[in-house]
Amino acid sequence: MPTAAFADDPSVTDAIRAVDAVWVILAAVLVFFMQAGFALLEAGVTRMKNAGHIAGKNVLSFAIATLVFWAAGFAFSFGDGTSWIGTHGFFLDTSDDSIGNLFSSLSFTDVPMGAKFLFQAVFAGVSLAIMWGGIAERAKLIVYFVFGTLFIGLIYPVIAHWVWGGGWLASLGMQDFAGSTVVHLQGGTAALVGAMLLGPRIGKYNKDGTSNLIPGHNTVYAVLGVIILWFGWFGFNAGSTFMAKGTFFPYVAMTTNLAAAAGAVAALLTCWLVLKKPDIGYMLNGVLAALVAITASCAYVKPWAAVVIGAIAGCFMVFSVLFFDRVAKVDDPVGAFSVHGVAGIWGTLSTGFFAAPDLVEKLGVGKPGLFYGGGFTQLGVQALGLVASFAFVFAASFLVLYAIKKLVGLRISREEEIIGLDVSEHGASGYPEQLPHGGAYLKAR
Question: Which has the closest alpha carbon to 330: 343, 321, 317, 342?
């Protein structure tokens, strides 16, 4: 009788590698699903006449981010090179066997190259999605193409390389486990620059400088969007462990959830105290601000510290939104900089206070925080990283957006803004039965 030849049974190492790869892909899918959360949240807190455009641009944004990150962004971020930028691995022209030679910063995990790229690509996509919230309801569609390409290809990778790709901040021991600075501060800073250069929406401010509320059209969309983002954040933070074995990724998921819950409650109570009403929108942003803050520290802090970090982030966010709206007069429709920038700053600094010695030893990055006897060393590294990252992203984003403004313009016309982006940019209303005036506008053109 003929006998069949069977391959050797997989070893324990092979099995662990396979499980880790499945976990990283699953985490990447969770992070990708956050695009749905952004679409619902941003559409919900803006007006009906712009809803289709605002939701749809998330698809365009992620598509641009994926292609540009594949071509250049991934190599600049994680490729071996100098302490300032990566110089190898463009178009992912490599194999798993050569990862260690081209992407040594990612050699700590044995998952396949495709899983590593996908996970980092969805992170870059989130950072870009954050930016669009700050310029919602008044930016030209061409801005998404031009700025999106340059942000993912040239701006985002610099900070990613500095902190995660073996760059100079990594060598100093900067602690940013899942991207409070790399992902969120970058996106929030770009949003701030965009909002400043575009100027406020029509009707936002009166002649005496007082601010008018421009309410969104669907609070339920916004709530559902935040729940999806909260859900996706488990992939964001816990997935950054790059491993399913052991107990570490459940621990990171736990601290993430505790912080989010604390942020929701703290933000609602804070706005209730300050504004005399428990505003739902502030509670939603409190969840996100806390998630942003815990993103840097989720693997470095104890559960009690996660609650403190999340609660402080929720409080900070309320006062930040009020400051930019009423004092700085920056019209940020979704509070992008307050949620992702200010909370990102706090989250990055928080490890300098709360990083626990046993967790720091486990991760092998940086030193314990001030409250554990570590002194000011780690806090100083975190502060230096924040200043350098903010300065670079602000300057680079300003140069790119200012150039776009001079060459093709950033903002749609007054008439187009009044009629809404759905019709003026795309020729079709997102709510054709509720907004029938779109057809008349198109005929007039």
Answer: 321
The Cα 306–Cα 346 span in angstroms is 12
Phi and psi based region of residue 137 (left: phi greater than 0; alpha: psi -120 to 50; beta: remaining): left
- Cα–Cα distance measured from residue 217 to residue 52, given in angstroms and rounded to the nearest whole number: 12
Residues in CB range of 123: below 8 A, 6 or more apart = 31, 179, 182, 183, 236
35 close to 54: Cβ distance less than 8 angstroms: no
Q: Determine the length of the chain.
A: 445
Distance in angstroms (rounded) separating the CA atoms of residues 332 and 322: 11
The encoded tokens of residue 150 equal 């340059």
- Axis crossing angle, helix 280-297 with helix 219-238, rounded to the nearest 10: 10
Q: For the whole model, what pTM was predicted?
A: 0.94
pLDDT in tens, 248-300: 999 999 999 999 999 999 999 999 999 999 999 999 999 999 999 999 999 99
Q: What is the pLDDT of residues 367-400, one digit of tens each?
A: 999 999 999 999 999 999 999 999 999 999 999 9
Q: Phi and psi at residue 80, in whole multiples of 5°?
A: -65, 145
Distance CA 358, CA 78 (A): 28
